[in-house]
Amino acid sequence: MCLFQSVMNYLPKEVLEHVFDFLTSHHDRNAVSLVCESWYGVERFSREKVFIGNCYAVNPERLIDRFPRLRSLTLKGKPHFADFNLVPDGWGGHVYPWIEAMAKSGINLEELRLKRMVVSDESLELLAKSFPNFKSLVLVSCEGFTTDGLAAIASNCRLLRELDLQENEVDDRKGQWLSCFPESCTSLVSLNFACLKGEVNVAALERLVARCPNLRSLRLNHTVPVEVLQKILVRAPQLSDLGTGTFTHDPDSETYVKLKNAMKNCRSIRSLSGFLDVNGRCLPAIYPICTSLTSLNLSYAPGIFSNELIKLICHCKKIERLWILDTIGDKGLGVVANTCKELQELRVFPSDLYGVGNTAVTEEGLVAISAGCPKLNSILYFCQQMTNAALITVAKNCPNFIRFRLCTLNPIVPDAATNQPLDEGFGAIVQSCKRLTRLSVSGLLTDQLFLYIGMYAEQLEMLSIAFAGDSDKGMLYVLNGCKKLKKLEIRDSPFGNMALLSDMGKYETMRSLWMSSCEVTLGACKTLAEKMPRLNVEIINENEAGEDKASCDDRHRVEKMYLYRTLAGPRTDAPDFVWTL
Amino acid sequence: MEKGGGGGLETELRLGLPGGEVEKNEKKRVFEEFDGCEDRAAVHKNQVVGWPPVAVFRRKNSFNEGKLYVKVSMDGAPFLRKVDLTMHKGYTELVRALEDLFGCFGIGEALKGDEENYEFVPIYEDKDGDWMLLGDVPWEMFAESCKRLRVMKRVEENGVGLHAKDLLKGLSKED
């Protein structure tokens, strides 16, 4: 044993703890805890933040047992494809048991971040009443609660700093939840209620903003009119992140002038979103802040014409993150390419979901962006058509992609110029982008693409496949090649039992696998479940709820299968239509 | 669904290379309903679940999908109402909804032809600002171009009923 190792063995715990304090990423902390028993012990008593990517991978009790000093918990629930209506209501992902367990054990919870989970009002009430130091609640794509639950949080969390609601389905009881923040609440730093449908008490909102001097981030919902926005900006010129409500007003009115002046005074705004209802002619009011913006989200802003968007973009030279609708057009993307040299992340969403020839962006826009924006590393692009040539050019221009998601509105459209599959184009992307961790593919694709992915995508962690491939070989290339794969989700592709069962141990190295409308049969799923006790293999069977499970033929294709590694065994809260094998 | 999805490619969508053997059974099940149909409603109905992969929240909250509320006025009613056109699949349903809203019956009669025995004439203002009689164009075309609705009440003149076109003429004179 070398000198260094012996020294490390005799370092007192306090020193180790202090050293571990510098490790903020959970990857690093996880790695450190595997070194030896003593490090495991020190690490677990000093860890305050825990990330659990699948809430069914582990029990709350186990979490609390291992990390008694837990202060911040991040949990994810439903599989990603739940976003697209592929997971029926009632599947699961309830947060209540977690909150209950932490409350019972006296955990000093300060922060809770949830994604795709079911959050009831009861859980919010329990949360609000159980943790006196609770500071931060972030809910993303969650459901199951109403504004009554929010009222409980507002009323009881004396030290609340952050209430961030992103894209949740909230039942708006049109109560006075916002008025429930007591006069003594002055600690708010971040408030985002953009996804709420109902009106809020604007007087209460203005008073709240006025008494929270540390407020940095405020995102309003569509019911907050421009007059109120203007007053808020006057009271809170220190804001760095603003989400407007509606943005329709008469550009000739006094309100508009006042708003423009208020905006000019907000010299700290770096991030802008909202415009949930907008009159394009009012956009010049925000030009003064555009010059320092680093993040702009206009993806929920309806009906801004391409030329108005273009005029706006011309002011945004420092933009790093841009979310926009495809109404910007290829021409508009050309302007982005010429103007936004700091651009790192671009998302172009479809404005017309049924795209009957109307979609405004094609491969041209993507190529222009790749050529003009050297720092681009993350893209989500919905388009009418694509070509291999374009993708090959993009791959050459941007070898730094970390996330690359391309979605053609017709899921199996071939190369628009040559009619060939898009294998070569996506292949070029994975070959060139050595740091790619997330990939979504679409268009006409054969097994050849998956051969490329298996060969080149060494850092790939998440892969989404739809209507692609020819045979089991495709899936096998991916499973065998992508050593760092964590999440694989596949729909409507001809992958079957041979691929599923070829390397069963692989699934214990991954977080989860989703396969729907593929070729896997019930029998194969049963085999997998039997051989791998540390996996939960769930079959979602909407049509046959209640049917005698024993009578199901093993040769039947399974419509939806979701499997994940777990230490918690089969879950006890599965509904009727979920069958854990 | 896709017309000219790439230089003459047939719109029969299937998995596998173009020109290759079509896989039997259900691989093209989801696309069999797409056959170059122009009718957006049919595309709507036969929509592949979850494609394009736009999150449900975004779909519901983007202007192109979700609700389409238009004002409805009824002659003689003290206040206007609003209807969500996306909640109805056709004229019959819409008319029924209007009848519920205003507590009356027979709004749809005028659409059935040149009958004398109707009391109401349902019309709408389209994108061009013209007042049109309900029912002439396909539902989807109507839903896209309708800015507001109005249910006109027939005015008795010497016991003779007015035809719809006379009412409409009267209306354009008002403008």
Automatic annotation (TrEMBL), chain A:
<dbReference type="Pfam" id="PF18791">
    <property type="entry name" value="Transp_inhibit"/>
</dbReference>
<feature type="domain" description="F-box">
    <location>
        <begin position="11"/>
        <end position="52"/>
    </location>
</feature>
<dbReference type="InterPro" id="IPR041101">
    <property type="entry name" value="Transp_inhibit"/>
</dbReference>
<dbReference type="GO" id="GO:0005634">
    <property type="term" value="C:nucleus"/>
</dbReference>
<dbReference type="GO" id="GO:0009734">
    <property type="term" value="P:auxin-activated signaling pathway"/>
</dbReference>
<keyword id="KW-0833">Ubl conjugation pathway</keyword>
<dbReference type="Pfam" id="PF18511">
    <property type="entry name" value="F-box_5"/>
</dbReference>
<dbReference type="InterPro" id="IPR001810">
    <property type="entry name" value="F-box_dom"/>
</dbReference>
<dbReference type="InterPro" id="IPR041567">
    <property type="entry name" value="COI1_F-box"/>
</dbReference>
<keyword id="KW-0927">Auxin signaling pathway</keyword>
<comment type="pathway">
    <text>Protein modification; protein ubiquitination.</text>
</comment>
<keyword id="KW-0217">Developmental protein</keyword>
<dbReference type="InterPro" id="IPR006553">
    <property type="entry name" value="Leu-rich_rpt_Cys-con_subtyp"/>
</dbReference>
<dbReference type="GO" id="GO:0010152">
    <property type="term" value="P:pollen maturation"/>
</dbReference>
<protein>
    <submittedName>
        <fullName>Protein AUXIN SIGNALING F-BOX 3</fullName>
    </submittedName>
</protein>
<dbReference type="InterPro" id="IPR032675">
    <property type="entry name" value="LRR_dom_sf"/>
</dbReference>
<dbReference type="GO" id="GO:0010011">
    <property type="term" value="F:auxin binding"/>
</dbReference>
<keyword id="KW-0539">Nucleus</keyword>
From TrEMBL, chain B:
<dbReference type="GO" id="GO:0005634">
    <property type="term" value="C:nucleus"/>
</dbReference>
<keyword id="KW-0539">Nucleus</keyword>
<keyword id="KW-0805">Transcription regulation</keyword>
<dbReference type="InterPro" id="IPR003311">
    <property type="entry name" value="AUX_IAA"/>
</dbReference>
<dbReference type="Pfam" id="PF02309">
    <property type="entry name" value="AUX_IAA"/>
</dbReference>
<keyword id="KW-0927">Auxin signaling pathway</keyword>
<protein>
    <recommendedName>
        <fullName>Auxin-responsive protein</fullName>
    </recommendedName>
</protein>
<dbReference type="GO" id="GO:0009734">
    <property type="term" value="P:auxin-activated signaling pathway"/>
</dbReference>
<comment type="subunit">
    <text>Homodimers and heterodimers.</text>
</comment>
<feature type="domain" description="PB1">
    <location>
        <begin position="67"/>
        <end position="154"/>
    </location>
</feature>
<comment type="similarity">
    <text>Belongs to the Aux/IAA family.</text>
</comment>
<keyword id="KW-0804">Transcription</keyword>
<dbReference type="InterPro" id="IPR053793">
    <property type="entry name" value="PB1-like"/>
</dbReference>
<dbReference type="InterPro" id="IPR033389">
    <property type="entry name" value="AUX/IAA_dom"/>
</dbReference>
<keyword id="KW-0678">Repressor</keyword>
<comment type="function">
    <text>Aux/IAA proteins are short-lived transcriptional factors that function as repressors of early auxin response genes at low auxin concentrations.</text>
</comment>
